[in-house]
Amino acid sequence: MQASSASQHPPDRLAPFAIPSAVDPVLIDFLHRSSDLLCSWIGSANRSSPVPVMRPLPDVAPGLEGASLESLLSDLQQVMDGAYQPSHPGALAHLDPPPLTASIAAELVCAGLNNNLLAEELSPGLTGLEHDLCRWFCHRIGLPEGSGGVLASGGTLSNLMALVAARAALGDTHRDPVLLCSQDAHVSINKAARVMGLADDALQTLPVASDGGLCLEALAERLRSLQAKGRPCLAVVATAGTTVRGAIDPLSALATLCRDTEVWLHVDAAIGGVFALSSSHASLMDGMERADSITLNPQKLLGITKASSLLLLRDRTHLRQAFSTGLPYMEEPKGMDHGGEIGLQGTRPAEILKLWLGLRQLGEAGIEATLSGALQRRAAFAAQLDLGEFTQLSGDLHLLTFHPKHGGTNAAGCWSEETRQMLLSHGYMLSRPFYGDRFCLKAVFGNPHTTAQHLSELSCLLNRSLAPI
């Protein structure tokens, strides 16, 4: 047999495609050196800033000839030099923790396998792994037999698919259905309503109680009003971890109300759902197991590399009902379903691999430690923030939003902007959300590299920011 052209490739250049008949030494060298660059970048995180001071601009367009191995490595280094650094101990702005190490490796293997979760024959082992791991999540949460799910590229897509499934379950005979959620629900619910082509007044938001959770009385009243008007409710969306406050809607009471009124309950637990995996903190999610659908994002706290989101359904047949169109160009699956028949996405990478391997790396003890550590850091920081000067917005999860207790909205806006920049100069990155009538600062404590010393220094800087001159 004639030798592959890839095996005759110059040693200073990567073959476009790795040969299938032998191990490619140039590819091995390239992957090792790429990994060295990445490990050096992660390992030097605390010597820079969470966000780069300079942002290199690498060449975008391909050259006339393919780039050499050295040039490709240089290109990678430039991208790293301009990237956000989630491993920095002061990276506390958002729900983006450092990557779990096993997940990094799984991401590489996922790319190398290049399997497609569209159909079982294109990902025979991985399709089964996805079905099985979704069932494991359902079992741990407390969903009944017959439940199941599918992975999606982010919580926005999971929420959209849940609401499409809810509409399919409601049936085509119901016109102009209404979608109910709290005023603090994630913006993806608004986006879902637009994508689904619902009426302009279909998405109706309700007030929150003092703890940040959806006001149950307001929901009950709105449902009664809709029933009197003969207008159906497509779904109630409960939030288990609001983006700004980390508040949790009253899930058990909402589940009872939705069951009594025969309304689909979707729980957007992208932020808080993983706490159901913890024996110590599962009570935070009490009632979630009674939902019809649940969005859960392991990427937001467990460190599974992006994207990692699950949509779990109490009755998994709703996924097939909503999304199955038939795949006449594929063989029938030997297992439950083709991946492209139970969600909006057709072609999908094997994201299940990094979730499965990451959970295997952590184990039960590691999951517990990761979740408990985040809550402990939040509590330690809150205890050091001067309550005489700051108003802390209540919430039960691993984030804390606060603003000055004194002064008006303009003063809060100036303080939050100036203080955020001051903190960045000290290596601490907080976010600046607008909530209610003013700007606040928010810290998220999912970063395991943030120590007690960091929390003490951060709280001291904040307390001094409001000290009299």
Topology:
Layout: H1 25-43, H2 69-81, H3 101-113, H4 124-141, E1 148-152, H5 155-170, E2 178-182, H6 187-195, E3 203-206, H7 216-229, E4 233-239, H8 251-261, E5 265-269, E6 293-296, E7 309-313, H9 317-323, H10 352-384, E8 390-393, E9 399-404, H11 409-425, E10 434-435, E11 438-439, E12 441-444, H12 452-465
Parallel strand pairs: 2-3, 2-4, 4-5, 5-6
Antiparallel strand pairs: 1-7, 6-7, 8-9, 9-12, 10-11
Helix pairs in contact: 1-2, 3-10, 5-6, 5-9, 10-12
What can you see in these coordinates?
- This protein is α/β, with parallel strands linked by helices and 469 residues long.
- Helix content is 39%, strand content 11%.
- It is built from 12 helices and 12 strands.
- The strands form 3 sheets. A 7-stranded mixed sheet has the order 1-7-6-5-4-2-3, with helices on both faces. Strands 8-9-12 form a 3-stranded antiparallel sheet. A two-stranded antiparallel sheet has the order 10-11.
- The chain is globular and about 75 Å long.
- The protein starts with 24 loop residues before the first helix and ends with a helix.
